[in-house]
Design brief:
Length: 193
């Protein structure tokens, strides 16, 4: 763990703020066909700007046992009450890192940064991600029909959100990671922006 860049961590994973050395990794990850078909890709300049931005941040997911990068989030709306979880991409799929890292992202968003609302959108045929978000307690708000035009096709997005009281309810039910417990277990510890 690098205490200077760690946002939050669990037993297996650490979320840390990206650096310029992560940009090639993010571009490679988002260009893999198994990921690119489910997201809207961004150019390098977007990630360069995010390094200095107060509105947006790229977050690297690190596997603690190996030190390997295993995925990334892009988050936006950081100066509002409503954080957008813009990109959710797990490279090492199918071992529960989607669940574990999303729990960490919710704990950081609500428990540390005190956002009121977290939200994201998801293509309506992305069954694995739809399952992940629903099983992590996100609420389906609605759909945006044919909102994307990819080549000659239109695509529909499903909007999901969670509110701070819903996160707190789930925390009471032990369905969420509690950052206060992590803090107590790992002092001295810093949660950075
Ligand atoms: C979607 C994604 C983030 C999930 O991460 P992951 O690490 O594979 O997820 P996990 O292993 O924690 O859990 C996946 C769950 O989906 C289930 N699943 C896998 N394929 C599925 C499918 N086709 N339909 C429904 N559920 C599926 C798994 O069985 C598992 O179920 P569980 O809740 O019972 O454990 C990851 O696969 C990914 O990055 N996909 C490509 C990019 C993407 O789609 N990003 C989201 C954009 S909105």
């Amino acid at each position: 763990m690098n205490i200077l860049s760690t946002l939050i961590e669990s037993e297996r994973l650490e979320l840390r703020k990206s650096t310029k050395d992560d940009i090639d990794y993010i571009l490679e990850l988002t260009s893999k066909p198994e990921n690119s078909k489910f997201i809207v890709r961004f150019p390098r300049v977007r990630y360069e700007k995010a390094l200095e931005s107060e509105d947006e941040m790229a977050i690297i997911i690190v596997e603690k046992s190996s030190g390997d990068r295993v995925g990334y989030f892009l988050v936006a709306g950081l100066r509002t009450h409503s954080i957008e979880w813009t990109h959710v991409v797990i490279d090492k799929k199918g071992v529960g890192y989607g669940h574990e890292s999303l729990k960490l992202l919710k704990a950081w968003s609500f428990g540390v940064k005190k956002f009121h609302r977290g939200w994201l959108d998801c293509k309506d045929y992305n069954d694995r991600a739809l399952h992940l978000y629903e099983s992590e307690g996100l609420i389906r708000e609605g759909i945006e029909r044919d909102v994307l035009k990819i080549d000659d096709r239109f695509e529909t997005l499903v909007i999901f959100s969670m509110l701070e009281n819903e996160y707190e309810d789930r925390k009471q039910k032990k369905l969420e990671v509690d950052p206060e417990i992590i803090l107590r277990a790992q002092t001295p510890y810093e949660f950075l922006t």
